[in-house]
Design brief:
By secondary structure, the chain is of the alpha/beta class. The chain has a single domain, classed as Diaminopimelate Epimerase, Chain A, domain 1, CATH 3.10.310.50. The chain contains four helices and four strands. Helix 1 packs parallel to helix 4 and helix 3 packs antiparallel against helix 4. The protein is globular, with a radius of gyration of 14 Å.
């Protein structure tokens, strides 16, 4: 059965719960923030859309500039991992490529939840090394997945 391209119906309840748990677990080890956004269409360049959404959601306002946006575009069958400047300068492009490849391998097999959970775990592990969780850490960005039509 084909998945819906409606962002609100793309994931099953079980998949949503797995993704939410992966984000909470990853963020439990780091001061960094991870945000997943799912959109139906992208009428522009994917990186341009990710940058605009990053700003719209206030992800560029974290104290350490250490937020990661994973943007999944359903109709276009594309995704992008967008790391803020504080993260990118520490992890480099090769890391993002590794995360992308892991996720893409799952996505090709319609394993979107597994791909996202694996990518989030990989990002969380790396961010914990560069941005360890502090005792006074607060969750600067909500963990909820953003669904855009």
């Amino acid at each position: 059965m084909a998945r819906s391209t409606n962002p609100d119906r793309f994931f099953s309840e079980r998949e949503r719960a797995s993704i939410d748990a992966a984000i909470k677990q990853a963020e439990g080890r780091t001061s960094a923030e991870i945000k997943l956004a799912v959109a139906r269409h992208c009428w522009t360049d994917l990186k341009t859309k990710a940058a605009a959404l990053f700003r719209k959601l206030g992800l560029d306002k974290t104290a350490e500039r250490n937020c990661v946006l994973i943007l999944l575009i359903l109709t276009n069958r594309e995704f992008l991992i967008y790391g803020d400047e504080g993260i990118h300068e520490k992890v480099g492009q090769a890391f993002w490529d590794d995360v992308r490849d892991l996720m893409a391998n799952h996505f090709r097999n319609d394993e979107f939840s597994q791909g996202l959970c694996g990518g989030v775990a990989m990002i969380g592990e790396k961010l914990a090394r560069h941005f360890p969780r502090r005792p006074d850490d607060k969750n600067e960005i909500s963990d909820e997945v953003v669904y855009e039509d």
